[in-house]
Structures are given as structure tokens and as C-alpha cells.
Amino acid sequence: MQTLSYYVQADSAEIWWEKTAQTAADQTYLxxxxxxxxxxxxxxxxTLRPLQPQTKxxxxxxxxxxxxxxxxxxxxxxxxxxxDVTAAPYHACPDGKTLTTRxxxxxxxxxxxxxxxxxxxxxxxxxxxxLHSDMELYLDEGAVLQGSSNPAHYLPRIHSRFEGIEMECxxxxxxxxxxxxxxxxTCHNIVIQGKGTIRGGGKELxxxxxASERERLKDFMAANADLVSTCENSNTIPGRVxxxxxxxxxxxxxxxxxxxxxxxxxWNVHMIYSRxxxxxxxxxxxxxxxxxxxxxxxxxxxxxxxxxxxxxGDDSVAIKSGKNPEGNLxxxxxxxxxIFDCHCAFGHGLCMGSEISGGIEDxxxxxxxxxxxxxxIEIKGTSKRGGYVRNVExxxxxxxxxxxxxxxxxxxxxxxxYPPIFENLRYERIHITGRSLDKTWSDxxxxxxxxxxxxxxxxxxxxxxxxxxxxxxGIRQELAEQIEYCSLSMDQGAISTL
Length: 498
Prior knowledge:
By secondary structure, the protein is mainly beta. The chain is built from 6 helices and 44 strands. It has a 13-stranded parallel β-sheet, with no helix packed on it. It has an 8-stranded parallel β-sheet with strand order 10-12-15-20-23-26-29-32, covered by helices on one side. Strand 39 (435-438) and strand 40 form a beta hairpin.
């Protein structure tokens, strides 16, 4: 029996639970509220509404055969007071041309635990905004929080982390918490939701930041040509100071729901040293933006994303934990990550790494359709990185490929004492197409396992069960041990390399 996870408001509750291999791939769930069946779900989550404010409820989930999945008890919240940012004393002008940063920040500062900062339909041009504990931000249908493309609107810089390295970065469009790897969360209970759009300054802002930073660092980069040559490209070092769309540092209990999240100057949602971050029913859009990741838990715990759609220029999800040598020293793993009922319309897919120096563990992925992605589900790291990825379970997903491998890129930095360890990985009931989408379609290896040559650092303890491969270049396996294939089927068009 599970304890159901939930998030409640005054008139609704979102509940979710973990799927297991013991349930069918197309399982139906029966949801009961106070012993009365009120819903049927074909996914491992359900929205309950309408509910009464400040009322206690018991919710339970069963299978049609009577098997008990789990239960929870909760009390709905209070009806909150709406702070309309277009009304007095704020008078934010939603014409998409007038800079509204000061008005929006004033409304945010005035927001208490019983309030909601409310953005009606319109476009609100703004620079960086800072959220605080015990507040809610709501964007109504047609509301667009539009980030400026002027780097000056994201100053002063703040302490942050990018590609596994702590540094001073430009502020993000929405910022919460103060980065400190030595302490637990100090910022709590923030809700960002609605039916609107949060859109960053995108490619134009990114290019402006990179150009400014390249000029600032020109002497350093000229004196360190060997370091620059090990980076992905010439934008790597100056590009690390770009802000994100939403930056969550040392926070707990943050929910982002119902919104379109688009065009950050780099990654869209980035949570660092944080706990209990839930993102659901969102659409991520960042096509055409270099490093345009969607959702990146970084040395964070108990992070959940579900029922989201991705159109991303890079990884749809990227799980991280720091980069050598700093990430090895800080040693804060990313763990207890749940990803389910997500769909990739375009992007790289669901990735772990390459920044894994603090370790990644206890990741569960289920009911995700990633067939239109480039890599499907990938575990990656360089030989320098150190750290580990372990205890990963993937269930009932469609992917172009499954990758667990060493990679040569993003390989700058002082090496860790030992290469990474990839171990204890489980993949069950997976449909693999063997066809990868990166601007155009191409055949790829359905499975690639390629570990590290040093003794003790081969990929190990991996189990594939009930795989159906419909095309592609077969299976590539080297520097891997204790690999088990159970119930593997291949269509006639798939190449068998076992």
C-alpha cells in the first residue's frame, strides 16, 4: 500500500501515485473520495474538483479487481485574496511594451500567505522578479509574463550554479531562494500556476549575454586556449552566466502547474539544492535555443514532474548533481526523482548527466511517450566526472533508444579520482523504435551500453525485460557486465546484434 502524494487548494486536489510492474501497462484506476467512487483514471494521477474549502477528505485508489493501491487524508486550503496587478496601487500595464518590473515586484512583495498575485489577460514586459516564501502567482488565460531581452534588466548578478559549477550568473526571470550548498532549504511554499504563459527573453537575450560576457572574459579565454578547446563550443564559458526562466535555489515545497513555460535564455526550470518541487500539466517550449533544457533537478530531492509536454532545444529533462572537481567535493546527490505521463514532441529526451559528480539515485520513469525525441532515455557522463548513477527504473515507455554510456563532450575541469559508476538499472515493458529525431529522422542503436575501461567501472547490473524493438541498428554493448535480457522481441526490420 502506498501513501498517495497530493497537492491541495481551496476547491481542488491533485493526487498521484507510483506505478509498479505488477500493474498492467494500460491500467485503469478507481478513485474514491470518502468511500464514494468519484473518478476513473487511466493514468497514475487524478484531479479532484470541486471540493469545499477548509474541509477534511480521505482519498483512496483501487484497481478494478479490488487491489488497494493507497490512500491519503488531507484538508483543503482557504479561499485567497486576489491581488490584481493591473489595479491600484500597482497599475501594471499589460501592453507588452511598458516595462512592468517595479509594479509586479511590488505586488509580489505585498503578497502574504492568504493572497494570490493575479495577472489577468495581457502581456507584461518585465525584467527579473524575486519571489518569497508563502506566496502564490497566478496567470489567467491569455496572460503572458514576458521577459525582457535586455541583459541589464537581470542585474545585479546572483550566486547560482550552471553546468555543475557555482558562479555568479545573471538573474533568471523568476528567482526564489538564495544558493548555499551547506544548508537546507530556507525558502518554502511557493505556487506558480494558471492558464497563461511565462516566456523569457529567449535567443536574443542569450546572444546579448554571451557577447557581453565574451568581451569581459576575452583576456582569460585567450590565456586559456587549452581549456576552451575542451569545451563544447566557443560559447560554453561565456554562456554559463545566462539566467534561466525559473531559478529555484535552496527551496522546498514549490509547485508549478498548468502553464506554458517558454524561451528561457538557457534552461527553463532549474532547481538547485531544493526539495519537493512538483511540476505538472505544463508545456515547455524552447526550440531553436542552445542549451534549451526543459526541467533540470540539480542536487535536489523529491522532485516530481508529470503530465507535461516538451518542445525543447536540448534535454527535455536533465538530472544533474555537479561537475568535477567542485561537484565531487560538495557531494550533494540528486535523488528520489519521479517522471511520468510526459510526452516529447521534440527535444533530446530524458537524461541523467552529464554533470553527475555528486551522484544520482532513485529515479523512476513511467508512462512516457518519447518516440519523437533524439535519445529517448539517456544516462551519460565523461571519464573525468566521477560520481554515479544507480537505482533507476523505467516502465511502460516508448523511446527511440536507451543509452547508458560515456561521452566525450563537456569534458573540461580537473578529473575526479575515479570514473563514474553506472549500476542497478531496470527497464521493463519498453517499446524501442530505433529511429532518432534530430531535425531529420535516422536509424540508431536501439540500446547502447558503453561503460568506462577502468576495472570496477564497467556498466553493471542492468536488466531489460519485455522489450519490443521495431527498427534501428540493434544493440551495442561493451565495457558492461551483469546484463540480462528477458523477453526481448524484434520486428523483421530491426537488426539483431545480440
